[in-house]
């Protein structure tokens, strides 16, 4: 019966030798590449040869499956594709945050905070210079020091800005270099694709080529987010960012092309399509160049723009020390180079809306009806002395539990009064108590001798000092007394029969231009006239003869009606409420209560992105804030009469439109040229539009005015004053004198004025917040980088555990395959002996 031959057994042993030898070669290859980057350990795939069914002498009826040995079907890489994907995704993030961290650290070094080389130190130094000028406004050295410190701040900010811009240029150059690096790697992958396809078609596994491909993919994952898949031919299709750059052997080369705008920074294109990166080093380079660095440069731009405009609007409202220069700006305006490429940043009214006539003064208000006001009782006896500032003076009295109506009647009975106390509607329909006059009530002094009457009627008060002589103390020796008031000397004659009233008449006759003497409730009141601003400090009284000393003259302080509140009712002549609208936000205004500064506060509190302000001499200002890209780009509506009164526009001549609340004052959709013509009367500041993905570049125009730089004596110090005017347009503007430091005091107050970051931060807070923002962003980036690094190392460690070469394991495999080789060789030796026995020994019996 047939049986497997000895030669079949010999072949089985031979196959064992070949398989073990091949396995030994794989082990040797692994050991040789133990330190080769990207190498994946390999394993021979050993399979049994197909068995042969044979009937034997011992099993004649059922064929036996006789094994025929072993063969190596393939040599496989030991690799986990899932771990590769995880590693590359994590590697993307790590390289993104590593680049961000390194560059933010560099920016922190440039900012140099806190140190004496930082912006905040120089900013504080500038303000110290302002304080020195306040201390000694006539000191030329202090003024020169202030100008020098301003120049130092300008130079430092511009240097920091230039260094940030240079960093952007360096990042842009690196983007171009990394693009070429990617192209080289993609071309190498295309070459590997071709070789892999050939190997697959020949039905063998190109392990080392696949290792090289994975190594290149690992390197690519440093630079960008990559996505790939493998086809049946073993070739990969590769996508970088949002663009496919490799399909088989076809490569779409990346190109770094300059933008057609700005400074020509580069964008990356695959063919004609822009590549958008989502992670990796290139994503970080783009984010740093176009967002992060631009953000901090924009912070400097905002600081410079706001500082320049605020400084200038205050500075040009003052006089230099000798009163010869006014209207001069401290910094150069940061204005647009071309009106066609500009946007409207700021409007300032042309009128100094101050020192106009006060004809209405409001007391209690928002009452539901007349009786709520007229029936209000006075608890105590009292009186108010009214003085018109020159000649007329009288007193109006109330008794306990008299009502406001009684006081109103008492005033009505005085024929030579120059005002009326009225009750009328105001705002949105409530009632109020108010003084009304056809004369300027600024010239009126009203003294409350009860101390509570104005409070009962809801009027605001102020303290006023007057000289007082009591009748009981008027015991003066007869004689002639020399009295001087403000340098004017006169003789007052006192006899035994002279009364307080007589003394008052003499004082009024001789000194009526400086004081008004009036007897009220057994008291002689000596009141400064309007010419002396009702201010006792402006009265220089000389009593060489001792008249007032004998009369025990003293100073008493009384509550007086505050006539200085410049409400919109006085400015626009309207008591009914009206609205202005900024975008979709309505602001309701009661002109009987609202001043210009109240209006500015209401606009700022509305959080519309429009910032309102008032200059030292009453020019109303509107600005666009950061949230509106420093542009007045919201529609602003409101009565034409309001904007005309504030000096923004000229009236259209049609009074029917004056209080139309739908009147469009600011239309951001108008071309800049039309806006310039529309606001030709106002002080309009147009700035350059921002180029996409670029900073505003205001810092590049930051400079101290050349006139002030060359002659610090032109520095504005004196706030000056405007004279009273009949139409709320103070055109007469005069200096106060060298000792007046009003302007530099206002400049000093700018330090803590909230004008930056949509009106939320002052200059002092803003610099601190920028430094803090940079520090927090840098620390956050460092933490994310550290966490990502830990994750990357953990995944890489697991990946190396799978694919890496373990020398101990390879030595064990070497011994295993060596023993298998020896055993297979021993099988062949044994079979050889058997064959020799059969050939040489069998059949020799009987020879």
- Main sheet summary: 7 strands, antiparallel
Strand order of the largest sheet: 16-15-19-26-20-24-23
Radius of gyration: 47 Å
Number of strands: 38
Helix proportion range:
40-55%
Briefly say what this structure is:
The chain has 847 residues and is α+β, with helices and mostly antiparallel strands. It is built from 19 helices and 38 strands.
Structure description:
The protein is of the alpha+beta class and 847 residues long. Helix content is 40%, strand content 21%. The chain has 19 helices and 38 strands. The strands form twelve sheets. Strands 16-15-19-26-20-24-23 form a seven-stranded antiparallel sheet. A four-stranded antiparallel sheet has the order 5-6-7-8, covered by helices on one side. A hairpin with a 7-residue loop joins β9 and β10. α2 runs antiparallel to α18, α3 packs antiparallel against α4 (140-201) and α6 (280-315) runs antiparallel to α18. The protein is rod-shaped.
Secondary-structure map with pairings?
Elements: H1 6-32, E1 42-48, E2 52-54, E3 64-66, E4 70-77, H2 81-111, H3 119-135, H4 140-201, H5 207-223, E5 226-230, E6 236-240, E7 243-247, E8 250-251, E9 254-258, E10 266-270, E11 273-274, H6 280-315, E12 319-320, E13 342-348, E14 360-362, H7 370-374, E15 382-387, E16 393-398, H8 404-412, E17 420-426, E18 430-436, E19 445-448, H9 453-457, E20 461-470, E21 479-485, E22 488-494, H10 500-511, E23 515-520, E24 523-528, E25 541-543, H11 547-550, E26 554-561, H12 568-572, E27 578-582, E28 585-589, H13 596-605, E29 610-614, E30 620-624, E31 636-637, H14 640-645, E32 664-666, H15 672-678, E33 683-688, H16 706-710, E34 716-718, E35 721-722, E36 733-734, H17 742-749, E37 754-756, E38 761-762, H18 763-803, H19 807-840
Antiparallel strand pairs: 1-4, 2-3, 5-6, 6-7, 7-8, 9-10, 10-11, 12-34, 13-30, 13-33, 14-18, 15-16, 15-19, 17-18, 19-26, 20-24, 20-26, 21-22, 21-25, 23-24, 27-28, 27-31, 29-30, 31-32, 35-36, 37-38
